[in-house]
Amino acid sequence: MLDRSFRETLDRLGVARQRVLLAVSGGRDSMVLLDLMTRVAPERALALGLAHVHHGLRGADADADEAFVAQAAERAGLPLVVRRVEPEALRRGRSSRERPTLEEAARTLRRAALDEIAAAEGYDWIATAHHAGDQAETLLLRILRGTGPDGLAGMAERAESDRRIRPLLRVAPETLADWARTRALAWREDESNRDRRFARNRLRLDVLPALSPAFNPQLLRTLGDLAEAARTDLEWIEGLVDVAAEERLELGPAHARFALDGWAELPEALARRLVRRALRAVGLGRDLSRAHLERCLEFLRRGRAAGRPLRLELPRGFVLRRVDDAFVLAMEKGPDGIHPPGDATVHGRD
User: Fold this and answer.
1) Which among 123, 133, 125, 223 has a CA at the least distance from the CA of 171?
2) Among candidates 94, 71, 81, 63, which has minimal Cα distance to 22?
3) 90 and 212 share a domain?
């Protein structure tokens, strides 16, 4: 039964005697999550609350979703916080390269809203209703659009960095449907989930149903296993990067400082991850191509070599250059050189 495996999952994730904020849209999956969490909360001494994010995209239907979740919270005797966001505002005024899709904008604002609610209300975890189908869609989208090994890690069941738990991540959507039917749960249907203009919907409605019977009836489980294996490897690799970063990388609010020597001797994969970490820390992660990354690595590998260029120009006015006994990545500041790095620096992950 799902409730038994759900309890086992919470055991594995270490969720007990804590405050958990449930992200509830009113859809089937989030209502199953609410049902399961309210069943196990007393025995685990969990203090639950609900959060609902109104995206303002579906007019009266979105208003009805909000009212439905409010009624569910009242029936369960749980506090509810509603946050309204405007995805179109996040897209407005941006170049085509920097402008997120409507889906991406909604997801970004939803995550930020949940983070703000959890912080303001003192919750230990934010629980979302992502399931095995969502994980499979995420992996396939990343593969089709282009990703590296890290992208195969997919979503994590537990991520302390952003206080997320996804206790349904290994559960098939059919299992959730069976539970909802057995428990006679009510939920809201979001018609936008059937809009094939969105890539994720095309994957869920057309691609996955065709791939599974043709190649692997256990495709969702297979992709989930791949994500879990990739995430286990990633966690180990990031530990190695942390150690190397302590020795040769300093990250400030608007700059990164690299050790001058030793880049040519570093393993390619390690050097590449260190440079990526620095680029993300200054906000260049989305703006750099593979060619930019290769040029940064080549620049660092030359170290003290004579005759090399002293600066490398990067997108958005950033420059990587040799400064005394280090390389510094920062934004250009007029003709006199780069913006001086700030005093505060942190080692390790961005």
Assistant:
1) 133
2) 81
3) yes
Distance CA 304, CA 326 (A): 10
In a domain, 272, yes or no: yes
128, 164 in Cβ contact below 8 A?
yes
In a domain, 237, yes or no: no
Q: Are residues 29 and 122 in the same domain?
A: yes
Q: What is the pLDDT of residues 18-48, one digit of tens each?
A: 999 999 999 999 999 999 999 999 999 999 9
Closest by CA to 301, choosing from 332, 337, 329, 272, is 272
Look up the pTM and report it. 0.85
The answer to whether residue 341 is domain-embedded is no
Identify whether the C-beta of residue 37 lies closer than 8 Å to the C-beta of residue 22: yes
Residues 270 and 133 in one domain: no
Residues 129 and 262 placed together within one structural domain of the fold = no
Other residues' Cβ atoms within 10 Å of the Cβ of residue 145: 9
* Residue pLDDT, tens place only, 206-248: 999 999 999 999 999 999 999 999 999 999 999 999 999 999 9
**Residue 216 sits in the same domain as residue 288:** no
HSE at residue 292, side-chain half, CA atoms within 13 A, is 16
Rounded CA separation 223/137 (Å): 9
Domain that holds residue 307: 252-331
